[in-house]
Each structure stands twice: as C-alpha cells, then as structure tokens.
Amino acid sequence: MTTQMIIKINAELKDKVASIAFSERKNLSEVVRELLENYVNERDIEGYIDELWSNIGKKMTSKGVTLENVEYAVKKAREKKNKGRN
Q: What torsion, rounded to 10 degrees, do the Cα atoms 50, 56, 58, 64 define?
C-alpha cells in the first residue's frame, strides 16, 4: 500500500532534481522513494545486525561449522584471538 507525502523544497532544488531525474528516465517520486529507502537502509541497525549475523553464519558454514560443533569453533576462535594479544 502506498501513501502520499508532502514535502517543501525550494523551486531551484526541485528543478535540478527534476532535470537529473528526467535524464535518468525517472520521475520525482521515484527519486524521492530511492533516497528515502537508502536513508533507512543506511541507518537501520536491525537490518545491519541481521546482515552481520547472516555473514557470520555463511562464513562459519563455509568453514564446516555445524550446530553440533559451534561451541568448539567459538572456543578455538577465541583462543586464536587471545594468542595474537600475547
């Protein structure tokens, strides 16, 4: 479901954005939607954390870590990290 949003900007900025949007074969609404989506994605900590966990899971899976040996893998990673501190 979509909804409308009214924003106020100066005419010069609107004209510049409209010109750039036109050159990209987009309309102003598409440009504003993209900007807002990017804004949220860059600041959405929940999304960032979800992606981080996903990347950790993929890395562990690629190294052969399973649910059965995850504790062992974490222990080994911590030992390796602590050795580097000495």
A: -150
Residue 19 belongs to domain spanning: 11-85
* CB atoms near residue 65 (< 10 Å): 19
What DSSP string runs through 20-81? HHHHTT--HHHHHHHHHHHHHHHH-HHHHHHHHHHHHHHHHHHTT--GGGHHHHHHHHHHHH
Please report how many Cα atoms fall inside a 13 Å half-sphere around the Cα of residue 76, on the Cβ side: 8
> Using CA atoms in the order 49, 69, 59, 55, what is the torsion angle rounded to 10 degrees?
-10
pLDDT class for 42, splitting at 50, 70, 90?
confident
pLDDT at 85: 74
Residue 78 belongs to a domain:
yes
Q: Domains in the chain: how many in total?
A: 1
